[in-house]
């Protein structure tokens, strides 16, 4: 059994999701990307400062930096993904780790869309999840905050925390 009211609900929710995603695309260009670029520069500047203080010679590259001390080389190389900047930190080819700057998207709370159980129920639940994420993304893009996450899922909230973790 399929109810027309649930079908209409799906169509309306998809239109709402599409509108939110278009708004997010605009916010990413106007707000998120410039703040992400600033956050990248903050991290690279903090790494540069810390390693310079420890006697390393720094060479800034187009994707990060290379720090040398005697025979030791630390390479910090940036790779961009959607709403994420990944840094690979390579210590003399002996150890490598990855830390990413990620837009902090917290879950938005949403009520159930429908209580009428019919053939659309599973689709409505998926649509609810999609709408929930879209609203969370929109909120995150409006006032972007970033977190740092390592390959092993350790989370930091500032460039200084990252620098202290990797370069004590």
How is this structure best summarized?
By secondary structure, the protein is an alpha+beta fold. It is built from three helices and seven strands. A hairpin with a 4-residue loop joins strand 6 and strand 7.
List keywords for this structure.
alpha+beta; 168 residues; elongated; 7-stranded antiparallel sheet
Word description of this protein:
This protein is of the alpha+beta class and 168 residues long. It is built from three helices and seven strands. Strands 1-2-3-4-5-6-7 form a seven-stranded antiparallel β-sheet. Strand 1 and strand 2 form a beta hairpin. The chain is elongated and about 75 Å long. The N and C termini lie far apart (63 Å). The model has no long low-confidence stretch (mean pLDDT 88).
Shape: elongated
Averaged pLDDT: 88
Task: Name the beta content range.
Answer: 25-35%
- Alpha plus pi helix count: 3
Which series of helices and strands comes N to C? HEEEEEHEEH
Give the biggest sheet: 7 strands, antiparallel
Helix residue percentage: 40-55%
Query: What's the arrangement of strands in the largest beta sheet?
Result: 1-2-3-4-5-6-7
What is the secondary structure topology, with strand pairs?
Elements: H1 4-53, E1 57-61, E2 64-69, E3 72-81, E4 84-91, E5 95-103, H2 121-142, E6 146-150, E7 155-156, H3 159-166
Antiparallel strand pairs: 1-2, 2-3, 3-4, 4-5, 5-6, 6-7
Helix pairs in contact: 1-2, 1-3
